[in-house]
Amino acid sequence: MTLPRRAAELFAAEHGHAPSAVWSAPGRVNLIGEHTDYNDGFVLPMAIPHRVAVAVGPREDRALVAATHGDDGELHRAEQVVVDDLRPGSPTGWSAFPAGVAWALGEAGHPVPGLDLVIVGDVPNGAGLSSSHALQCALALAMLDQQGRAPGEPGAPSLAEIARLVQRSENDYVGAPTGLLDQTASLRCVESHVLFFDVRSGDAEQVPFDPRSAGLELLVIDTRAQHSHSESGYGERRKGCERAAELLEVKALRDISQAQLPTALEKLPDELGPLVEHVVTENERVLSTVELLRSGDYAGIGPLLNASHTSLRDDYRVSCLELDVAVEAAVQAGALGARMVGGGFGGSAIALIPTADRERVESAVRDAFAQRSLTEPRVFIAIPSAGAGRDL
Ligand code: GAF
Q: Which residues form a coiled coil (predicted)?
């Protein structure tokens, strides 16, 4: 059964009537452009087939009653909240997601009524594939739907505005200082394309992405590692970038070009230089990747993926043993390029591989993990899939 159908059936079982709508939103992988989004830079994500579906229906009272279908087959109910009483900081845990999205919508002039929400998803949690943003984007769309303000309806916010609202929920309610990459990917990606997104200007271009036409595939390796310092590490990197921009007297690191890099590095303390070097070179790598994709040169992006990983590992220092093992094993077994994706400190890596080498690369990665007694990774092919939308 499809996810939206399952969400609708669980909703009916829980509430005794059918939902009025089901919306879903996908997870993502970012082809390249990591830790550039909060520096006003460039990113190049695609949506993956894994999604979160939210069945929604109105309530008579002002409560937000959310439940999610867990891996154990049970429905887990969120802490019940009243939409008029939402304040950042409470509730915590996963209950903060529906509460935070409703709060951010209210703050932006889209007050959410009392709602029943039933959530079903298959984006692996904690895998760096943006399951929490898929959830929040699907929630935002379901909640707007109940106000008659779904995308395309009069008075509805644009997808770009919804992405900012979801970012506000995440930053100010849930308390994670993330950028705009994941929400934008989940809401604005389309099938068979990567999204070339300029965070500063908001410009977005759908760039065709069909590695199969070149006999290639994009493999996702979920290392299943999640290190405890991931949140603090992310926040520290972000603060470091902001401090460097201040010292360089620019609005954001986006304003430093590759040509200005040597002079910029001379002005910075040792601990900030490598962060700036990563962001400046990563932005360049996104632009080069887009050029190669426009000319259909898929194999040409392999070295850029490798350079991105090296930069994230050695300069930005957000990789970890599991990600490095995955990348190294994939490249040694024939991948044209590989790199970690997302915030880092665990999660997933991607590898661009010849279709014919898929089995060899997959077993090389599994063997490398087994040799080091690491948990067996989960591996799948990333098919550039549709962004968020209404299913039922
Ligand atoms: C996480 C964040 F949520 C994104 O905003 C982005 O910064 C990414 O890490 C790194 O590119 O996914």
A: none
